[in-house]
Amino acid sequence: MKSSIKVLLFVTMLTLLASPAFAAKKVRWKLAMTWSSTLTPFASAPIKMAKMVEEMSGGDFTIRVEGSEKHKAALGILDMVKGGQYDIGHSASYYWKGKEMSTVFFCTVPFGMNADEQYAWFYYGGGMELMEETFAKFKVLSFPGGNSGVQMGGWFKKEINSLADLKGLKMRIPGLAGEVFAKLGVNVTNIAPGELYTSLDRGTIDALEWVGPAMDIKMGFHKIAPYYYTGWHEPATELQFIVNKRKYDRLPDNFKAILKAAMKASSMDMYIENFAGSVDAWSKMKSEYPNIKVKQFPLPVLKAMKKAADELYNSYAAKDANFKKVLESQRAYQKKAREWSTISEYNYIKMSNELKQ
């Protein structure tokens, strides 16, 4: 009888151990952001993602989100996630071009795809596979982390009428766009976000680019520089979630699925939040600061920018096989996608604007 009871207890214990409620292992992760915790909508994506992960896992998988004000290493996210100080990070992959040049393509590049085209390339055009290959050397996984859409070309104190107006101009503009401008005679610099307003106000720089109305209005640039140029350099700025691969591989399958779903959902939500924010912010800017002049760079300037960008791409591709591989993938997909973008979105907006006249 005692033997039977022991067997029954043993079987019961095995059953309990196998049940989801008993077997669920508590997972506690930390996430580091390049941004401060208050810099919405960039900070919105990781914060909302962590909330979704906790809710979908019933509290068994939690992620503590820390902004740059906490860890003090805004541009050290990749290294911290790779090294295991943080399990996951939220940043922008073009910050890592000094470590691996082809990472720029997983954020945005001058004259590249718009957000719709880029998301299609990521999920249905081979982009995710190329991103995984590129980041494998860092022992991390990378996932889309939210898009700003087309970013504005910057705030300028003086109007740009020709290439001559760019010569000697002091401008804050990072990434490949900075290299393009440098080829055209601009004195390019990169200044910490907290110092941008003061630098522009005091004349340390003559111009700068930030993001778009939703985020620019908080910085106050429109109070100093009246010329607001439309975009060319960051047509689809995709942020990224970076995940320590060893930590990810240890997750049970259901937690992996929850994490991936939450990252994807929060990324799209950030795209929507930023668009809505820019709609409201531009309406306010236009009303309160009627002297703002929205400009497009003159065609000769844009052509020179495009030529400089292509020269840079071809130069890097000649030296870097992976850069060439990703560049060719994006160029091919953009050519195919742009035809549909023109037929659909572009022509609809063009037609709508013509009806107003």
What's the helix and strand layout?
Blueprint: H1 2-18, H2 20-23, E1 27-33, H3 44-56, E2 61-66, H4 68-71, H5 77-83, E3 88-91, H6 115-124, H7 127-135, E4 140-147, E5 154-156, E6 170-172, H8 175-183, E7 187-189, H9 196-202, E8 207-208, H10 213-219, E9 227-229, E10 238-244, H11 245-250, H12 253-288, E11 293-295, H13 299-319, H14 321-356
Parallel strand pairs: 1-2, 1-3, 6-7, 6-8, 9-11
Antiparallel strand pairs: 3-10, 4-10, 5-8, 5-9
Helix pairs in contact: 3-12, 8-13, 10-12, 13-14
Could you explain the architecture of this structure?
The chain has 357 residues and is α/β, with parallel strands linked by helices. It folds into 2 domains: 2-148 and 236-276, Bacterial extracellular solute-binding protein, family 7 (D-Maltodextrin-Binding Protein, domain 2); 151-233 and 290-318, 3-Layer(aba) Sandwich (D-Maltodextrin-Binding Protein, domain 2), CATH 3.40.190. It has 14 helices and 11 strands. The strands form 2 sheets. The chain has a 6-stranded mixed beta sheet, covered by helices on one side. A 5-stranded mixed beta sheet has the order 2-1-3-10-4. Helix 8 crosses helix 13 (299-319). The longest helix is centred in the last third of the chain and has 36 residues, at 253-288. The termini are far apart.
